[in-house]
Amino acid sequence: MSMAGNLRKVTGLGRVGGLRKVARLARRRPRVDLSHPARSPLGSSVVNCVTYQDGVRVPGCADLVDAVRLVRKAGEGFVWLGLHEPTDREFAGIAELFDLHPLAVEDAVEAHQRPKLEHYGDTLFAVFKTVCYVEHEQLTATSEVVDTGEIMVFVGKDFVVTVRHGRHGSLGPLREELETDPQQLAKGPAAVLHAIADHVVDEYLSVTDAVQADIDQVETEVFSENGARVDPGRIYQMKRELLELKRAVVPLSRPMEELATRPIRVVDPEIQTYFRDVFDHLIRAKEQIAAFDELLNSILQAHLAQVTVAQNEDMRKITAWAAVIAVPTMVCGVYGMNFDHMPELHWRFGYSLVMAVMATACLTLYRGFRRNGWL
Known about the structure:
Elements: H1 3-11, H2 16-28, E1 46-53, E2 56-57, H3 64-74, E3 78-84, H4 88-98, H5 102-110, E4 116-120, E5 123-133, E6 146-155, E7 159-165, H6 172-179, H7 182-185, H8 189-222, H9 232-249, H10 253-261, H11 269-335, H12 350-371
Parallel strand pairs: 3-7
Antiparallel strand pairs: 1-2, 1-3, 4-5, 5-6, 6-7
Helix pairs in contact: 1-2, 4-5, 8-9, 8-11, 9-11, 10-11, 11-12
């Protein structure tokens, strides 16, 4: 049965006539890799459905219900179903087929969940926050630096269901990489869970390295000669984006520690060794984010101190020039009075003497302020 038939049987999508039309279009189209697009070319939330036995991909595009029945009858292998932003209606048949808990199904459909790990009988439900670095030519006060998404993973003894939210974090390349290592893939659904966790955490490290470059740029500009003129909005924007990254990384610590240390029914002890390595990488990402947060706080405080120093410097210059101008203002103010009897008022050299006194006083004040660094 085609993938279109699979969708009709499992999710109950559309009417029979519309489904037949989709099936005809699917047969006419060249075969494509459904693991890479954000949405399936068939127009549904199903991105890919693959059966594995002994770590090897079973060729063909079998019906999901038949694939699950054969895997369970043989007692080996598993089915990996990939979804992208499914609706309640699309996910209802899949949840019934794999006996998924309603609370986990609700979380998978609604998204916007914290990273977590939950047990529902023989099914493990994990939520990962994916992150992506947004390229930008120049960091501004409104630049988006980090974009987040989500991957929900249902793991049973003979199935893996992945639900992805967001425009990034495609699992297609990861699936292809896993298929090049049948020995690892033969360890079952837990191996897929480890690969997803490792992929997500590696992206954390990549994003933190890219964010560090932005922070270094801001730090260099703040401590440059014109550091006081740097827009503080850029620093605040970096702190906001770092907070978004922190919300994705930090809550994952507890679930990863549980996967790495505690016995879990669907996770083979041999796989837990690999989870310990992922947990170490996650700790490194957490430490980097904490260090970035402290560094940005220091940069912001240093910038505010520079602004204060610059303002004080400006006030000193204004005060010094005001003192210089005050001398001729005072003399001119005295001689501007209309008195009949004033010294040197009718003297031939009175004007020259007053101008010389004012110039000498102003020059003396100017040199004194320059010597003290006020001008």
